[in-house]
Design brief:
alpha/beta; about 220 residues; 3-stranded antiparallel beta sheet; globular; 9 helices
Amino acid sequence: MNIILFGPPGAGKGTQSNKIVNLFNLHKVSTGDLLRQEAKNETILGDKIKLLIDKGSLVPDEIINNLIVNILLNKSLFNRLIFDGYPRTLSQAKTLDQLLNNHNQKISCVLSLEVDEKIVIKRILGRQTCTKCGLIFNKYFNPSTKSNHSCDSKFLDKRSDDNEETVLERYKTYIEKTLPILDFYKDQNLLHQINGDDDINQIFEEIRAIITSLEA
């Protein structure tokens, strides 16, 4: 199956997608991670991507689509994908449908995490990622401790774009350009809306039930 995990920045998509990957043996496609990796390569394209990310602006569709095509060409990932942070525009959603169709695949369901703006801001400002193991924590809601994280605290890192000004711009961009995608998937009877303000484990239980029902 192929799943899209949808929601504003800071909705907890990264945390939930990791849980889904581990339980259902899917491969996470995070265009954000792919773009940040390209930005670290310090190429001309990487420098352009970094500037857009730091501003909270969307990266051009052509760049994103090429990244997605490379994933779909990998036969070992056939119908085993969860898209985290993509698509972000209606145009990308329509293109993704076409790309999947070209590779004899389709979207099984779309999970939309609904989160209050104030909670989004606090989640992002407190977000920390372990550069060693990749686990995601939050100093307000889910802090790293000895019981849930075996790596040294020195590996906890904060993304350069996780600041209040950028957060507000990204949330505005989401509302204006990304939210209309909900109607697109609702019309296809693929949309499942979930209260993203709930506890992390409670959110995942709802997600698990939805995905399990698709496998039945």
